[in-house]
Amino acid sequence: MPIRSVLSASLLSLLASIGNSSAAERWFEELKATATPAQLYTFLYALPKGGDLHNHLGGAARSEWLWAAALAQQDKGYTYYTKVRIQNCAGYGTNEYGPDPYLLLFKNLQGSDYEKLDSCQKSEYKRLQDLNDAERAAWLSSLRLDAPHEGRDEFFEAQWRRIDALLQNPYLVCEILYRNMDAFGKEGLVYLETQTELDGLRKPDGSDFSAAEVATLLRQELASPRARATGVEVRFQYALLRFGPHAEQRLRDLYALVDQYRDLYVGINMVGREDNAKGYPLRFLPVLRELRKKYPDINLSIHAGEMDEPDFHIRDTLLLGAKRIGHGVNLISDPETMVLMRNGPYMVEINLISNLVLEYVTDFSQHPFPEYLRVGIPVALSTDDRGMWDSNLTDEYFVAVHEFNLSWEEMVQLGRNSLKFAFLDEPTKQRLLATYEKRVQSFAQQFQKGRWSSLHEVKPVSYQFMCHHFQICLQ
Question: Given 228, 360, 390, 420, which residue has the most CB atoms within 10 angstroms?
């Protein structure tokens, strides 16, 4: 079915006046009016893109990638177990973040932790390689939001607890990093700014890697021939879980780590449920003022406005020193801060699919993205936890074009913003921006000249999100 059949009346009216638009815009308006959904997706997959600035590396791992990577870790001495049954072996406890997840099926354990369990608890677990087909399918599903009843609580309280043990293995983290670079490179991305850690990673016997050892592994991966072949430049952010009881001291520790490993790390991000009031932004203002007296040029890109209710967290986050806002869904309820951000030095990292599946909007028509875009608030599209929604960056572009009728220049500006607001050193940023402009111009010229034949070698890949929501299934 052509895209025209699902376009709004206002858009059809706009297309009727297409003759008055510039030649630079006319070809793209014609494309939107005549392309099938699959054709539009193919075009957007091939579209040169800038960067993904809002990316949690663990959550960006598709469950199939995690499965393969976890099994491959046997060569490094790691064995993983997952909970497949509940035998009522343990009571309920709590930790600093809330109730212990005893009743959580498909929670994964490293072998060194499994060996500490009693015989009853061990009977609840199986090695990953011993799962039968049904159990393997359930394990894969447990790391995706793929059921109608799953949403925000499943994501925050279950999926991250399941995945945590896997992400404590730096070799597995490097594999997931490469998988993302490879997939993003095929989508035309040139820069990935993702969140991962240097401390808290463990060897097969349960002992800790040093931060220096993990940094060396990350550098080796980024310098490897396979990573370089993706064409994707990578920098890291450190994530601070904002509502923990010791978050202020943790922030001090992270400033020291980012300062020590500036070749890898370009910023710090505050993450975690914003509806947990213990993580309110102004809690961190005193310690940030303390840290700014000691450390130069530590960038902040902070989650804010990922809430159902109006609040002033985005304004408060700007006071903390943030240069980028993650999500910003409820910014629209704070007109004064909207005016402050228009044409300003701040950018909103837009995550359309994340905001839908986590139920911050019930459908895309409720999303404030087009308002921000068209009143002059700098925005860029990003993927957040793409593995858990089983999506990619092309999906974000498709939703934006399909739901909000993006113009060609608006699409180009989104990619430009994703590099302009990256936490890169200026020479690298200017190099990537110049390359992006040339690639986008060349892509547009080639398509206008050859039309769909210019994309005959493009092999787009989509995942479950596009298949379920738009019936575009291109594995």
Answer: 390
